[in-house]
C-alpha cells in the first residue's frame, strides 16, 4: 500500500480553481520533488496536505496511510505524521521556541498514548537537533520565529521536522531565499531524516536544491495539473528548457 | 448628573446609620473627613457619560439600585479555600469590607513592618492613620472617591519602616457574599512604604454567590524616597458585581512603583490608577491586563501626573475581548509646568475575538512643560488565522492553540511583573481564565479574517 495517494484532486481558493485534477502516488522511503512556475498550485497542494481549511476541495480524494486525509483536521493530520515546512514560517511573539516545540511534541505523543515529556527530558533532545541544524542555543528561548533571519526561520522548520519525526514531510520552497551555506545546512538536515519509513515531498521553484536533496521522482506542476513526471534528470532538463508545457 | 442621584435618600440613611457605629466615630478629624466627603458626594452625585472622564462608562445601573451597607456575614475557612490564597503567607481577609480575624493570617513579619486592618489601626493608633488617610485621594475628583471616604473605615493597613525590605507579598482578599438585598462595601486601604523600603501588595476581589453587589474601593499608597513597591489589583468577582476601584499613588524622590491591574471578573468594572510623581527621578510602571466576555464592561482609567523633573512613567495595557464585552482604555498624562525631562509612554493593545465586542481607547496628554518626551499608541487586532494554523499543523489542537495565542498576548503583561509569589498567583488565575475563554470562542469561520480587519493606530507625539 502506498503512503500517499492523491486522486483527481480539485481545489478552489476564493472561487478560483487552483488544482485541476492532481494524481500523485508516494511510497514510504521515496523523495518526490514537485516543480513548477509561480502560481501553478504548488503551495496550495502543500497546504491542502497540511489540511488548511480555507482551501475548498471540490473533487477527488487523498488517501494517507490507508485513511482519508480530507476527513482530518490539521492537528489530526499532524498527529498522524504529516508535516509541512512552511514557505513563510509564522512569527508568534510571546511563545518561547522550546515551549512551542515541546507542546507540539507532547500533543503528538499524547495522541499516540505516550507519556508527555517534561522540560528536563526535552532539553537534551532539543539541543541535539539544534546542533544538527547548526543553530544557536539562544534560539531556545526566543519567541517562535520572532526576529529570526530568513535562513534561521527555514532552519527552524527543519528543526521541528527533526523533532516531530513525521511519516510524510512536505517542504514548501524551503530553499527560497537561502544562501548557499544555509542551503547546505538545511539539505543536510533533510538528508539525515531520509529513511525507508519516511516519504518527502519537496516543493521547489528552482533546481538548485535538488543538487543537495536528490529526489527519486520529479513532477512538473503547471496550471493546476501534473504535466510531466520523471527521474532526477528531469529537473536538470527543466533547468535548461524552463516549464514550457510539452506540445 | 443623575439628579443628585436618585438614591441619595438611601445613601443618606446608610450614612446616618454608619456614623453611629463606625470605627473612629469619636475622632473629630475622621468625622470631619467623612462628613465633608459625604457632602461632596451629595453635591455632585454619580457621574454620567456627559462627564469626560466617564464618557465610555455608564454607571446608571449603580445609580438605580438601592444598596445597603452589609451586615455581618460569615465565610468559612472551607469556603475560603477556593480562592487559592489560604496558603500564601501573610493574608488579610475582608468579608463585605469588614476585616475577618478568623480567616486572616498575618504571621511573623520582620521588625519595622506593621500589618493590620484599618479599623483596628484607627482604634489603636489613630495618629499614624491621621497623618496619611485622605491626604492624597481627592474627594473632589470623583463621586466614588467621595463615597468611599465617607463610608471608609476598614481595609488593609500596611506600614513598612525606612529601609525594611519585605520579600513576601501581603495579600488583601476582599470577599463579597450573597445576600437577599443588594450590598455595598467601601474598602479603604492605606499603604505606607517609607524611604528605601520595599514591599509587594496584592489586592484580590472575589465573591461567593451570585447576587448584586457593589464594591467601591480606594487605596492610598505612599512610596517614600527610593522606595520600591509593587501593587497588584485583581478583579475576579462574579458577573453581577459592580466594582469601582481607585489606586492613588504618591511617589517620593526616586521611588519606583509598579501597578499591575488584572481585570478578569465583575460585570461593570472601573479601575482608576492615579500616580503622582511628586519627587525627582521617580519611576512608575502602570501595567494592565483586562479580559472580558459575555456582557462585561471593563474600564481602565489612568491619570498619571508628572509633578517633578526627570520622572519616567510607562503605561502598558493589553485587552482581550469576546462576545459583547466592552473594554475602555483611557490614559491621561498630565505633565506639570516644572516637570522637565519627563519621559512618559503609553501603549494599549487589544485583541478582539468577536464581531460584537467593543474597545474604546483614548489617550489624553496635557503637557505644560517644554522639554518632555511623551508617546502613545494603540493597536486593535484579531487572533491571527495564520498563527493558529501554524500551531495546529504541528499537532496542537485548536483549543490549546487558541489558548497558547491568548497566553502569548497576556504574557506581555505577565513579563512586566517581577518574579514573586504574587506574580505566580496572578499567573495561575490568568491561565485558568484564558483556558475558559479559549474553550468558549466560536470557530474561526464566523470571525472576520484578521488580514482584513487588522488595524494599527500608532502615533508618536
Give an account of the 3D structure.
The complex is a heterodimer of chains A (247) and B (461). Chain A contains seven helices and twelve strands. Chain A is an alpha/beta fold and 247 residues long. The relative contact order of chain A is 0.19. In chain B, strands 1, 4, 5, 7, 8, 10, 12, 14, 16, 18 and 20 form an eleven-stranded mixed β-sheet that branches. An eleven-stranded mixed β-sheet of chain B has the order 3-2-6-9-11-13-15-17-19-21-22, with helices on one face. Chain B has one domain. In chain B, strand 2 and strand 3 form a beta hairpin. Mean pLDDT of chain B is 91; it is low at 444-461. With 461 residues, chain B is of the alpha/beta class. The A-B interface holds A 50-54, 73-75, 77-79, 83-84, 86, 89-90, 92-95, 100-101, 103-105, 107-108, 111, 143, 160, 164 and B 384-387, 389-398, 400-401, 404-405, 407-409, 411-412, 445.
Query: What class would the helix/strand composition of chain A place it in?
Result: alpha/beta
- Provide the residue-averaged pLDDT of chain B: 91
Domain count of chain B: 1
Shape of chain B: globular
**What's the overall average pLDDT of chain A, rounded?**
93
Give the total of domains of chain A: 1
Using DSSP, what is the number of strands of chain B?
22
In helices, the fraction of residues of chain A equals 25-40%
- In the CATH hierarchy, the third-tier topology of chain A is known as Rossmann fold
Model regions low in confidence, pLDDT < 50 over at least 5 residues of chain A: none
Q: How would you sum up the major sheet of chain B?
A: 11 strands, mixed
Most extensive protein-chain contact, per-chain counts = A-B, 31 and 24 residues
Oligomer: heterodimer
User: Helix share of residues of chain B?
Assistant: 10-25%
Shape of chain A: globular
CATH top level of chain A? Answer: Alpha Beta
